[in-house]
Amino acid sequence: MYTKEQTIQLQNATLSFLKEGEQPATAEQLEALRKVLRFHEYRYYVLDDPLLADGEYDQLFKFLEAVETAHPAWITKDSPSQRVGKSLNGNFVTVPHLVPMLSLDNSYNSEDLKDFDRKVIQLSKTSKVTYCVEPKFDGGSISLIYEDDLLVRGATRGNGVAGDDITTNVKQIRSVPLSAAFSSYGIQQIEIRGEVLINKNNFKKYNADLAEKGLAPLANPRNAASGTLRIKDPAEVRRRHLETFVYSIGYYTLLPGHELPEALKTHEASLRLLWELGFRSPVKELKTFDHIDPVIDYCLAFEESRDNLPYEIDGMVIKVNNIALQDVLGMTSHHPRWAIAFKFKARQATSKLLEVKFQVGRTGSITPVAKIEPVFIGGVTVSSISLFNEEVIREKDLKIGDSVLVERAGDVIPYIVKSLEDLRTGQEKEIEFPKTCPVCGSKLFKEAEEAVWRCINIECPAQVMERMIHFVSKDALDIRGFGEANVRKFYELGWLTDIPGIYKLDYEKLGTLEGFGKRSVENLQQAIEKSKEQPLHRIIFGLGIRFVGETTAKVLANKVHHLLDLAQFTQEALQDLEDIGPKVAGSIVHFFSTPANIEMIKELETLGVQLTNTHKQLTADGNLTGHTFLFTGTLPTLKRSDAEAMAEAQGGKILSGVSSKLNYLVVGEDAGSKLDKAKKLNTVKIISEAEFLKMIQ
């Protein structure tokens, strides 16, 4: 959209506005500022390659708002300020599409595509057809209408003939330009079709924020994107960071005296035109082929790599490239004859909800788990699905006996999308959430801002068992050969009732169990004895203090000589430590003010567990001294815990999150929201594992 010269010119104008630090004084200066803001929106939301820090953009945007408030006559319809809308009242207005938004015919194998090719050649009476192949984005379909270069309407697909007017919400999507220079191509009015999506990383971050607030998570990116379009609060729409890919031009009219531009003669050229005008179109993934066989190969190869994309896709779309030939082929009442969708293997299936069991976690959280009729989805058989909390059950209106739609996208945990209400027989039963702990019978408690019910009886058997499982786990005391199965077995036999009991096991009795030969018992005994010498931060993490992860455990360990020193810290003192906020500090204070916990810690020390900080790094000499690090994604050769240990051994400090205090973010494959946040901070240097190893060497 912007040439190199224009980019340099606009960046210089940006720096001029920032350097001067003064609001525009004339309408002409204000329009220059608007051009700068549109340019940076394009760089950030379309190219994903910003040239400006968030704070700098915010400064320029405030200039714009201030001047437009003082001079309302200077406001233009395509000003970046006009994205912000008031809350919507009442129902959405239904508006007709300029031409129907038809569905696509579906194919599921190579034979279907060959049959499609045969029909195209037969109907078009030609021996050679060029096809375009592009991803089939899995979100919410919309249409965008521009008149005289301005966005005048956005609408949902609806029933294909008419949809809901969602113009205000569409304006919250930064990858949708409020104006585009269609007139330079002789186009007066145009209707564009697209798909609204939520980037996988943004989806995870949004759900993480909900979880932090104790709220129910969104089900999946597709439903979240589609549902967001009809939210009546534009501010909430903005918070979800929707993005749009446009994939076709449905209708257009030309200005008087203008001939059809070349860019509208082929599908490929039309997508490149939209890209040049500032829209996100799949030009990078788009491929053209002159034969159906390479089309099939491309579709199959794309299916194998679908999980590497930052967006959800559920197939590929094959279209005849020549638009004149598309007109010859025409369409049925249901779908165009010149396009077909190649659907990937199903990751959804229907099943029946048989029962709901309620599990108790190590912090007392009560998690409802749906037991369904086993169903094969995405390469695995699914029979149990977490329902997270009571609110999810109510929001999805789930009942015992319901037919349910189950989904498993990529390698994530499966979830129930919805109940199939139309299939109810009247025999379904309400799911009753317990008022008391299903294990110990204690009354359940829920904090005002959380969606999770908890058993607050610290002696609850389920919590005791989960705490022991956590204590022996790899990232905690790392007692090899123990594991969850053995914890449960020893607990059921009455040989293990609490964490100190791990160090009081009767090894002679263990030798009488099936599967526990002399060598196995000796290995387990050695692993338990070895765990007594683990670093203090592993002990702290192993105690299972709510909200205290591995990094926070290291911060705490480095501030004390003995574990029980933490009992002397006030909440205010804890909050003065690195990356510890009010919630974490409050949890630590609560843990160390509980007498039973203090007694447990003293008993561990009596049994020989080392609780003094003998591993504390008193000096900080090394190549990384004075530098902070954070690791994200899957590293090519190192485990994350090993990489952190290497950094610390060289004097580096590990942080728990991205902030202005972070110097280096070491990035592996499938890096998530940490990478996105780091990109927005000019102070963080993003490096690879190889660069990290070079720093150590």
Automatic annotation (TrEMBL):
Residues 619-697 form the BRCT domain. GO terms for biological process: DNA repair; DNA replication. GO terms for molecular function: DNA ligase (NAD+) activity; metal ion binding. Keywords: DNA damage, DNA repair, DNA replication, Ligase, Magnesium, Manganese, Metal-binding, NAD, Zinc. Coiled coil: none annotated. It comes from Niabella soli DSM 19437. Signal peptide: none annotated. CDD domains: BRCT_DNA_ligase_like, LIGANc. Its EC number is 6.5.1.2. Belongs to the NAD-dependent DNA ligase family. LigA subfamily. The keyword NAD applies. This is DNA ligase. NAD(+) binds at D54, G55, E56, Y57, D58, S103, L104, E134, R157, E195, K319, K343.
